[in-house]
Amino acid sequence: MPLELLVVLLLVIATALAFDFTNGFHDTGNAMATSIATGALKPKTAVMLSALLNLVGAFLSVEVALTVTNAVVNLQDDVGAPRPELLGDGGEGLLLIVLSGLVGAILWNLLTWLWSLPSSSSHALFGGLVGATIAGLGIGGVNWVGDGTRLDGVVGKVILPALVSPVVAIIVSGVGTWLVFTITRGMDEKRRERGFRWGQVGSASLISLAHGTNDAQKTMGVITLALIATGNWTQLHAVPFWVKVACAVAIALGTYLGGWRIIRTLGKGLVEINSPQGMAADASSAAVILASSHMGFALSTTHVATGSILGSGLGRSGAKVNWRVAGRMLMSWAITLPAAALAGAVMWLVGHLLGGLFGALAIFVILLAAASLMYLHSRKSTIDHSNVNDEWVENVTAPRPLAATTEVADLIELEQPEGSRA
Fold it and tell me: How far apart are CA 159 and CA 235, in angstroms?
């Protein structure tokens, strides 16, 4: 393999693992926010448990890994091999599309983390790939609806699940919460809280296992596609073992980091939650996510978990739901796909304009610079395990990460507690 192509491949692998890492800390709240909010688990214990189970879950299945890229973009043929017209330069054209899409996804993950918004890492990845593919191959490069024989493409794999999964999770969690409080109506409140905290530990653990099973595979699929395109892997229906290990470790490390901003929003900002509600929400999320993984359906765990938490508030009489926070979440969900697509397309244009290895390196440098700026900005309002459960305070806005994003930030700015500011 030419040295230039090898370096580009290594950049793709490193960027894919970086996306997996952001996926981990971005989605920790999906599993552990309710357990941390109710005190069922201490914050550091919760993220450690979630990280270990994400690690294990990543090895349980490869169904999603084998379908994730072909679900939304036409980079592969019917049997999973890269399209021949993308391999004329040794696969460098395909690698540039994948690299650009990954960078777009990471940038959106980091931006929504900075704003404390639980957006979908899955949709960020799909959006980044779609945008880079449109820029590189045109509209025809995107698999919009599939062949019509089954739910597929952007509509079937992304848009419809985004609309349906939160609704299903809200209904399941709402009914479950109502049943829990109906059955335990005569029980002493302290005993009920104590018992359901143990139940929360089990159900939250199941979500973490399911998250590793579902989300880590998406990165496995992207890396495997890059390896096939460059001739470094030939099995179209299997994932190299080292890829499984690398992706599992990356998502576990990201999960352990915590993603405290998003944990706080889900645990304290959306619903006033107690242990019975938390267990009902976690059990509902785990059931929906595990079912989707078994069917090879690349579902957004964020949409499911948020819907379940919201449902737990609706299912309990007298519970408070913060509809302002819920509205900001919905807005971020709506713009995730187009925002990540725009970022992916811009990255491809930069890489294509500069060309070859220099273009790929430029994209990678842009990613490092933007990530560093957002991290430094986050230090102005630190949220970690020590203040993640502080009382939620409205009308205190989070700092805006970049001047260029002021207008968007104004639309979805999210309140942060005064006690969390450095």
Answer: 30
Tokens of 156: 């079937």
What's residue 415's pLDDT?
Answer: 44
Could you tell me the pLDDT band of residue 47, with boundaries at 50, 70 and 90? very high
- In the predicted model, what is the mean pLDDT of the chain? 85
Select from 87, 97, 98 the least CA-distant residue to 352: 97
Could you give the dihedral angle defined by the CA atoms of residues 219, 221, 227 and 230, in that order, rounded to the nearest 10 degrees? -110
Of the candidate ranges 90-99, 186-195, 213-222, 400-409, the one whose mean pLDDT is the lowest? 400-409
Beta bridge partners of 321: 271
Q: Which residues, in sequence order, are bridge partners of residue 229?
A: none
Distance CA 348, CA 353 (A): 8
User: Which of 403, 225, 209 lies closest to 294 in space, CA to CA?
Assistant: 209
Q: Which residues contact residue 30 at a Cβ distance below 8 angstroms, ignoring those fewer than 6 apart?
A: 118, 207, 211, 266, 285, 301, 302, 304, 305, 306
197: confidence class by pLDDT, cuts 50, 70, 90: confident
| Residues 109-137: tens digit of each pLDDT | 999 999 999 999 989 999 999 999 999 99
Q: What is the DSSP letter of 140?
A: G
276 in Cβ contact with 173 (< 8 Å) = no
Q: What is the residue type of 337?
A: L
DSSP 198-233: HHHHHHHHHHHHHHHHHHHHHHHHHHHHHHHHTTS-
Least Cα distance to 280 among 194, 392, 203, 195 occurs for: 203
CA–CA dist 301, 213 (Å, integer): 11
* Longest Cα–Cα distance in the chain: 72
| Dist CA 220 CA 247 (whole Å) | 6
Residue 223 CA to residue 15 CA, distance in Å, equals: 10
What's residue 54's pLDDT? 92
Which stretch of 156-160, 178-182, 185-189, 238-242 has the lowest confidence by average pLDDT? 185-189
**Mean pLDDT, to the nearest integer, of 375-400?**
79
For the CA atoms of 106, 108, 110, 113, the dihedral, rounded to the nearest 10 degrees, stands at: -140
Query: In angstroms, rounded to a whole number, what is the distance separating the alpha carbons of residues 398 and 405?
Result: 13
| Nearest-angstrom CA–CA distance, 275 and 244 | 35
Give the count of beta carbons closer than 10 Å to the beta carbon of residue 85.
Answer: 9
